[in-house]
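User: tokens in, sequence out, please.
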């Protein structure tokens, strides 16, 4: 009898797990991408046509929102300020991280701003404005920022996303003129321009004999000359701009400019024309 053989079952190959893993990864990637898209759609835009100013390390948006406004529907109660022409804003002048001057005030305000085309836009939650010098004295402007609150008068305008205050005048909050350190120092001098231009009789009219003598010696004092006269030395020591460094015996008029030499001679001539012996210093 022929030997019977037993039929063997075919060996089944194990299914690979790779397709399953790949499918899971694809599903996860799709889910993450969808989540990112939803977050971006729901987030507020960071650039809403606002200007940013920097105080220390904190960045602040000048306006949370800018929207067009129908001019026919504008009412005084619609905003804290309606900026059609000239405005006055009080605050502190600071320097931004990109070295630009800006005016910052304590309380945010809403502003209705008239643009060049006659249309109005509303700026909400405004806290500051970049400064542009239009007519402010250059001496005052060069000393900004000041350690005091100021009032800046001028016109507001939007430059792209930045709010600009074109400064025409700057005073203290009470409307008084601001005297800078440079102006204070100059005001202490009797004839502050005696080193830069030739003096005339008009410059000395109204001066006392003592003032003419002091004005003559101002020319030397600016170059650090010390004085044998106790009266003169005490006077110049009291001036913030004076720094005596050269003894009277060591001082040379060669350090003077031609203008200064001529002005010193002119003042001496005026002094001795008034009193033959000149001003008598109190030794």
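Assistant: Sequence out:
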């Amino acid at each position: 009898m022929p030997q019977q053989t037993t039929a063997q079952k075919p060996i089944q190959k194990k299914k690979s797990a790779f397709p399953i893993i790949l499918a899971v990864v694809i599903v996860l990637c799709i889910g993450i991408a969808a989540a990112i898209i939803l977050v971006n759609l729901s987030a507020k835009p960071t650039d809403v046509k606002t200007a940013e100013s920097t105080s220390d390390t904190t960045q602040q948006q000048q306006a949370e929102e800018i929207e067009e406004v129908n001019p026919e529907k504008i009412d005084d109660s619609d905003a804290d300020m309606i900026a059609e022409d000239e405005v006055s804003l009080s605050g502190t002048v600071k320097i931004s991280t990109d070295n630009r001057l800006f005016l910052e005030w304590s309380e945010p305000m809403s502003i209705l701003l008239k643009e060049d085309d006659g249309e109005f836009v509303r700026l909400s939650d405004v806290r500051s404005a970049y400064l542009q010098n239009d007519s402010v004295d250059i001496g005052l402007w060069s000393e900004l920022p000041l350690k005091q609150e100021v009032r800046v008068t001028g016109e507001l305008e939007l430059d792209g996303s930045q709010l600009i205050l074109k400064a025409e005048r700057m005073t203290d909050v009470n409307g008084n003129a601001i005297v800078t350190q440079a102006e204070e120092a100059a005001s202490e001098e009797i004839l502050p321009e005696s080193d830069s231009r030739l003096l005339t009789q008009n410059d000395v009219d109204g001066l006392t004999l003592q003032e003419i003598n002091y004005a003559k010696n101002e020319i030397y004092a600016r170059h650090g000359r010390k004085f044998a006269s106790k009266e003169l030395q005490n006077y110049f020591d009291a001036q913030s701009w004076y720094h005596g460094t050269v003894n009277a015996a060591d001082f040379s008029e060669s350090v003077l400019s031609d203008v200064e030499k001529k002005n010193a001679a002119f003042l001496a001539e005026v002094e001795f024309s008034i009193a033959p012996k000149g001003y008598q210093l109190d030794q």
